[in-house]
Structures are given as structure tokens and as C-alpha cells.
């Protein structure tokens, strides 16, 4: 008999066919064997550029081609030494370029690895999370709303399950999924409702499925080429710099032609001028700029990873430095997401619960006295609902290494598997003798209507000996609307307005003390009652009580928020939680300033966009919001000119994450959907990590400005010294090979070291820059030009002074050229320390950046080598310099820094004078 299609098979057939057990899953060794036999669950990757091609690409550069042309001409004219040296320089240049690009590419692909998908799978009777590429046929996979389906799965369980399959079928509306067999041989993919296809998304519900196809055998594998979408890895700044590079090529070539023509007109030999022109053009064009920018970005991104922020889209690194508002979730991001129930309210009774963390040890007290739960039906019912309407588990495991080492004894600890809110209820039940395990024998779950942040509740239908029961838990204000009865003094009575008011008051009192409040309700179902949908079961409920749980703020967040305020960045809390809880926590964290507004989702809905725009700058807390409200908030903030960073974790948060200037997803609790929409993933879900990432983003941008300042000022200096000399009818101040040397050694190494420079201390005390700011803003353009002119003039001055000692002597010309060469190198090596600070060279410890110190020392040593190693002297046309010449070199090289230093002190004192006349206005925008 021919094998049936997977969708036609019933569960038992499927299990036989794949020889698996749905309860135990595969063992590790079975899985390893299958992986060995059938290969990884991966779609074949697009072609990668091989290192050889990358190396050869270096020779495609326009300037390298010009240099090669020059080599050819030198060879033809019989100038073999020149030709060989130029070839050597071309090769070294290519090697450097290759190393830079190779590193940049490798760090970018390492980034992609980091955000690789994972899957929750049953292995050896336990749920474990593994890299999705290690899945094999026969694995049992667990799915939750927001998960990307990691392989083709035949579903064996599906609860209110919908999948978005547009990547495969083009149908953008999510389709319902179920676990039953479908007896139709030729079913189009869109109708295979019991199959979860690789690469599609579960947008609602929960499911379990067996892997039936992996990797290139999946339906997605068949159209793999279509989904090889690569994210743009070029940032706007890189793009702008590329444009700038093109402009600089034209300017440099124009100036070079002028230098060459002027030289020839003043009687210089044409061949010498040709070589000088080519070298000058090569030196004047900052061809290394794009690669150094990529390296600065890539290394910055590596630093961010160390600080737990994973960048998914490189352009966001730049945007991070411009962020002016951070909209953050509360639970888990601002708070620890370690919930413990401390208060219970039951039909007018106030109870308190003892015990800490997830350890199920504690008691429940009324008026200070412990109560006996066994004889308290109301408490028992509340615990029962909390335990049954629950997917979390609290288990005992061996403590992690550091904890054990402290006490030397092997220790055990309780850890949570699942949602912390549910974990808190599971612990509460276990503390008081109603653990899920003890209820398992009596109650069997039949249906689940999962929690989502839109509904803000969850329900299950369970069957027991006496019938069936609905258990519901959720946000109390919304849950109460579904309840017609209340359990009061052990009796079920109508939920009158008076009782509802009492209940709401109790909830608000808990919320005001920063507790997260959950309501619990139930209903006994009759045999005739339908329970196909949420609407069928979530009505006519009996309200049982409230639980209040603490979720302490993360310790480091308060400081991070203060840092943001100093840095002109506003923090806004957006939460699904109750307004009073949100306000209380915002107060504790210092989010809400005097006069700040807290707004609920309902109030937000009642406003039109204009009204919101008028208020939005003053709103610091949004509570009880749904994910679609987030989009409105972002748009409104953006209309006010803000650059918005927004966090999210759920599947419905994806549109807001996409719309934000910097979409941020949670690494631990976030869904795959939210991660894929995001630009940044926080691997620790922590708000302070966002602030760290912003700090890095600002630092990276400033470092890029630092080496642009250095490189361009050096280039201006190099061109100018040649240009002025030719205009003045002087001989060439630098020979071509010296120009190429300066370009390669003195420019390249220190510039790279500036790319990894430490940030200045006051980095987080400025307002964010605007996203439209030019890279040359804040006087950078002026600094580049003025410094370039000073370097050029001083180098020429040193050349001229030496030349005038014995004009007309060829030997003396060589000495003057060596002095010019040494002055140019020294002036640049001093300038590089200037570039580290927006103020002056004395503002920072010059030895702080050890890469820079190393780069400068090696440039210096190499220069001394060129001057004093006899074998190199004829190649580089140098002579050893004496004490007098060195004094001249140092004075000429030091003048630019000295003059710029005086200039900066004067402009600062002028600024201070004008500031002291105007009333004080803080620099930072504490909105
Ligand atoms: P944030 O949006 O800041 O992460 P949050 O976790 O409170 O905050 P949601 O997860 O959308 O936001 O939860 C909203 C409300 O839904 C909560 O205040 C709580 O009352 C209720 N709730 C949360 N988790 C569950 C759950 N597992 N089952 C039932 N109701 C829940």
C-alpha cells in the first residue's frame, strides 16, 4: 500500500510510522543518530563571498587601478625600484583592506548566528530548548503564540490555534489549525490545517506537533530561494560616507591635476610630477574610510553583545545615538518578573501569605492568625483555580555552580518553567497543599483558551468525576464583567453593584501598593453546555477572589532612568497592567515627574490623534493598553519629532516594534515574531541594557567622527603641502613614495585605533543628536579644515627653512624632504591624540587607549626605520636627521596642536562669559 500523506494520518498511525512516544519524545542518542543520517534542519544558505574573491576584490578599487597604471609606466620607463616599491605598497594595502573587510564580514555573520532561532522540544521526557537546526524527524515540538514554526510539523494538539502562512501561501489572514486527520489526498497547502509549516508563524494559541520534514525537504525548503531575504546591513551614515568618498575623489583628482600642472609649469620633470600626482591622489582619497566605519560599527556591536544587547539591524546602531524617548514594557523589563503572591482577597476577607521566591513553603494568615486551608472552602477553590488554569511548573533542580561553591555543599533550588504570573499562583497552591500534581489525578484538562495580552485572561475547561468546570483568571476589572455571581462567605450569591464596588476597591488598594492583581473565577458546566469558543465558556462566571503579587523593580533600573534623564532621553512606561500598579512602580523608579500624566488604554481610545499629540510629551505611563495602542503612541511621538525606541514581546507587538525607530525585543520572554521585527534584542530583557546600548551607539558615532576628523585633516594637510609648494615654485616637498608611506602607515593604523576609542565621560550628559545632523556638525568641518591647513603650512615651513640653508643642492633637497616627511608624520601622530576629545589634547589621558598608543609607537618606529636603516634610505629617498633638524621637526609638528589648544581655550572662555550673562538653562532636556 502507498504511504498516506502526513495530513491524512491519525495520531496513532503517525506515532507508529515514526516510532516515537509523544510523552517521552526522542532520546538524545536517537536524535543524534537521526541528525547524523538526515542532516541539519537548515535551508541551504545563499552563496558566501570566499576569502580569495574578497582579496581579489581589493584590486578592483579605482585608486588601486591608478596605482597599477603608474607601476606599469614606471616599469616601462625603466624605473624598476619605483615600480617594485609601488607593487609592494599595493599588496600591503590590499592585505590591510582584506583583513579589515574579512573581520567586518565575520563579525556581521557572527551576529546573525546569535539571533538564530530555537525550538522547544521534548527530549527524553523533558522539554528542552535547542537550536532549531538540530531538530530531526520524529521530534515533538511545543509551540506558543508568537513562535516561528521551526520545521514541518503534523499537529497532535492544538488549542485555539492560528498560523500566519503568508510566506508560503500568500494568504495574510491567519488560518485556524487543528490536530485531526483530513482524509483528502490532494490538498493544497493552505487547506492542510493540521500541518504547521516551517517558517510560518503561530499567531494565537498553543500547539504540539511531530516533526515530519526538516531542512530542504520542507515546503519552505522547496521555495527556499524566495525567503533568502537579507536585512540591509548598510547604515545611512555608511551610505553618506560613500557619497562623500566619491565627492572627495573628484576634489582630490582636481587638486592633483592643479599640482601636477603647476609643477610642470615651474620646470619640474613631467615623469616625477606624474608619479607625485598619482601618489598624491591615492593619499588624498580616504579609501579606507568605509572599511574603518564598518569595523567601528562591528566592534561596537561586539561590545554591545557583551553588554547583553544584540543588534539585528546594523543601521539601528546609528539611530540608537539619536533616541530621545524609550517606551518600555513594565513587567520583566523595568521589574524583575519574579512574582510572589503576598496578598489574597476573598469575598471581603483580607489574607496575607508568607514565604519568598519559588520555594513552596509558607502559610496564609487572616488577622495575623494562620488559617487551616483544609476547612476553608473559599480559599481551597481559589487555590484550585490558580493551579488548574496554569501552564507553569516550579521544579527543584541542583543549584548553579557559584551558589554551590559558596557553601561547598551540593544545594538545590526551585526554578520556574513558564510564565512568572502563573508560577506565582502555582507556588501559592503548592504552599497550601493544592499543588498541580495533587490535582492531576482528580481533574483532566479538556480545553484551553490561552492568555493573550489583548484578552488579558485565560480559561481552561477541566473534567472531574462530578462533571466539568471552567476556571478563568485574568485582569480583575475585565474579568468582573464576565461574572454574574460571587463567592461570598462560602456561598455563591449574585454579584451586585455594591459587591462589585467592594471588589474593585480591594483590587485598587492592592494595585496602589504596586501589587500585580489577578482575579480568579469559575463555573460548573452542565452536560449540555457548549464549550467550543471563549464566548461559550467565559460568561456567567462566579467571581472567587483576587491575588496580589509583588514584582520588585530591577535594582539597576532606577539609575538607568536617571542616566536617561541626564542624557535628554524621556522614559515612558507602557503596560498591560492596572493603572494604579503602573503608577506606583513608575513612582518608585522615578519615571514620573511632577505634573506628568498617567493614562489608561480606554482614555487613549477616547482621544483623537490631535488631542493625543497635544498631550503626548507629558504622558509618562500608559496602563491597561493593548498592543495596537502602542502604534498610536509611537506615531504621535514621532510626529513631535522624537526618535522612539520601543520594547515589546508579544506577537501583537510586532507592528509597533517595526514602526519604532528602534524596535526592541526581549531575548528571554520575547516571541520569535517580535524578535524578527526588532532591530535590537535584549538578551537579559533588562531596561538598563537599552541605556547601555544607547551609550554604545553614541560612543560608536563619536568614534566615527574622531577618525573622520583625523583622516580628513591628514589628507587636507598632505594635499596642501604639495599644492602650496608647487604654487610657490618650490621643489617637491615629499617624494611620491613618502606620500604613499604616510597614507599607508601614518593614516591607517591610528585611525583604526580611534575607531575603538573609549567614550568621553560626559557622553550621556548631552541631549541626543538629531537624526538629520551632518557628520561634520558641531564644528567638526571647521576643525578638519583648520587643522589640515596648519599641518600643511607647518610642514611646508619646516621644508622651506631646511631648504633655504643650501638652496640648489640636491643632497640638501633630500634632507629638506626628509624633514618635511618627519614633520608631516609627527604632526599627524600628535593630532591623533587631539582627535580623542571634543575639547583639547590635555582633556584626556593620552595613554588610556592602548591600541592608539601602540599604533602611534609602531608608526613612529617605522618612520625611524625608514630614516635610519641604510637599506631603506635609497628607496624612500631619506637621509638621517641630526639634532637641529629634529628640533625643527618637533616645533613645526607641535605648532598646530598648540595653536588649536589656545583657540579652544579662548572660545570656551568666551562661551562661559556669554553663558554667565544669560540665565542658567540646563543643557539636558529633562522633559
Ligand atoms: P507589560 O505589558 O508591561 O509586560 P503585563 O505583563 O502586565 O505588563 P500583559 O502581559 O499584557 O501585561 O498582562 C495584562 C494583564 O493580564 C495583567 O495585568 C494581568 O492582570 C493579566 N495577566 C497577565 N498574565 C496572565 C496570565 N498568565 N493569565 C491570565 N491573566 C494574566
From TrEMBL:
- Kindly report the protein's main subcellular placement as a broad class: membrane
Q: What Gene3D superfamilies does this protein's entry cite?
A: Calcium-transporting ATPase, cytoplasmic domain N (3.40.1110.10), Calcium-transporting ATPase, cytoplasmic transduction domain A (2.70.150.10), Calcium-transporting ATPase, transmembrane domain (1.20.1110.10), HAD superfamily/HAD-like (3.40.50.1000)
Q: What keywords appear on the UniProt entry?
A: ATP-binding, Cell membrane, Ion transport, Magnesium, Membrane, Nucleotide-binding, Phosphoprotein, Translocase, Transmembrane, Transmembrane helix, Transport
Subcellular locations according to the entry: Cell membrane
What range(s) does the Cation-transporting P-type ATPase N-terminal domain occupy?
5-79
Does the record carry Iron as a key word? no
Q: What PANTHER family does this protein map onto? A: CATION TRANSPORTING ATPASE (PTHR43294:SF21), SODIUM/POTASSIUM-TRANSPORTING ATPASE SUBUNIT ALPHA (PTHR43294)
Q: What is this protein called?
A: Ca2+-transporting ATPase
Q: Which organism is it from?
A: Paenibacillus harenae
